[in-house]
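User: As part of a screening pipeline, I want to sanity-check one entry by hand. Below is the sequence and the SMILES for nicotinamide-adenine-dinucleotide. Please return the complex as structure tokens so I can compare it with the automated output.
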Amino acid sequence: MSYVKNVLEQVKEKNQSQPEFIQAVSEVLPTLEPVFTKHPEYEKAALLERLVEPERVVMFRVPWVDDKGNVQVNRGMRVQYNSAIGPYKGGLRLHPSVNLGIIKFLGFEQVFKNSLTGTPIGGGKGGSDFDPKGKSDNEVMRFCQAFMSELYRHIGPDTDVPAGDIGVGAREIGYLFGMYKKLTNQYCGILTGKGLEYGGSLARKEATGYGLIYFMKEVIEAKGKSFKDATVVISGSGNVAIYATEKAQEYGAKVVALSDSNGYIYDPDGIKLDIVKDIKEVRRGRIKEYADTVKGAEYHEGCSGIWTIKCDIALPCATQNELNEESAKVLVKNGVYAVGEGANMPTTIEGTGVFQSSGVLFAPGKAANAGGVATSALEMSQNSLRLPWTFEEVDQKLHQIMINIYKQCEQACKEYGCEDNFVAGANIAGFTKVASAMMAQGIV
Ligand SMILES: NC(=O)c1ccc[n+]([C@@H]2O[C@H](COP(=O)([O-])OP(=O)(O)OC[C@H]3O[C@@H](n4cnc5c(N)ncnc54)[C@H](O)[C@@H]3O)[C@@H](O)[C@H]2O)c1
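Assistant: Here is the complex for your manual check:
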């Protein structure tokens, strides 16, 4: 059995209760085989065994009092995955589904993604099984304060810099930042995704969605295609989905569908984004309300039906494993030619296989959605400089970073003989930098 296969078996054996983590590692490791053939010294240094094991996992209770005076207890965690190329960096997720396996999968992915950005940041991820849905502002604040009252001792601007993810937007980052400052008496760039008044970066909110479109533009234009007049389906209606829609529309695409965890909307005339922003960003409502407002738009219960809509480009931007083999086959049958992952691991391994064997251009999340964390790194730079950059400056840097990520993936594909396989290209390009740094730093 090869070294890579052996380590993969160990991972499966040791982490049996963590299917998402096993899935993420199973997607990455086999694509790295050719790198290990070229670098036999990595095996002697147990590089892979070290890479799959987080440097540190912190798990803690989060007790808080709800509006009725009842004590609630959630589980909080932070996985500090790999600091070979910089301080741990990655979001915090607040969702009832959060468990250690999910946070480990996200942290593992983050290591490669952050490496691809070309900025000096390591990988980490955290979160809690707290559900912000239906909670009052005061309850969210009390939860965030309780969460930070433990997390603060494990993070720092040169140690670990968390950010947002599902369920963590500007409101939550504000409460977390306030508590960190109170506890430590330090005003520093401890979180990214901050408000503009207190150290945030312009274009951070837009970055993941815009970055996805910048990346996909490179992918499709290399094959003579364009966003102009393309029909696009985007799942989700959160931060990533909204700004992917905005940039795709700016490039002349017609985005015809969006979704949330209850169902999806289809608007054959093209989504009116100002209405979606009002529902989601202002009123925190359900996507269903769009169909109540816009004539000709339809609402359908259930999430996976969105993939039955005929489109040229599909961008899953909601959550993990939302696009399976069956949905992938329907998309292919309906003529999709490109799929870009705005979310983290939204396509199952079998779904990815369908796209790749059908010649669909498939861009994995760790490359395609890296714009968010890249701009977080730009926010860290601005915090250290104590100088804010303009929207245009940040957006231009983001655009260039996404082009560079595309070029790195393309180059790795060429070097290792897997042309157009962006899954392998992204894994290899992300891995090689981290691997060299780990080798240089000895057995730690
Ligand atoms: N925000 C970022 O900067 C960023 C960066 C990189 C990757 N991501 C990833 O992108 C994805 C979305 O993150 P976000 O920041 O937009 O979160 P968000 O909380 O703003 O939005 C998530 C959206 O997905 C919807 N949703 C949840 N489960 C769903 C399902 N099963 N089917 C359809 N819709 C569903 C929610 O209703 C919501 O509209 C996540 O996988 C996240 O890890 C986010």
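Points to compare against the pipeline: The CA atoms of residues 113 and 366 lie 5 Å apart. The pocket of nicotinamide-adenine-dinucleotide is lined by residues 164-167, 208, 235-241, 259-261, 303, 317-319, 322, 342-344, 369, 372 (CB under 6 Å).
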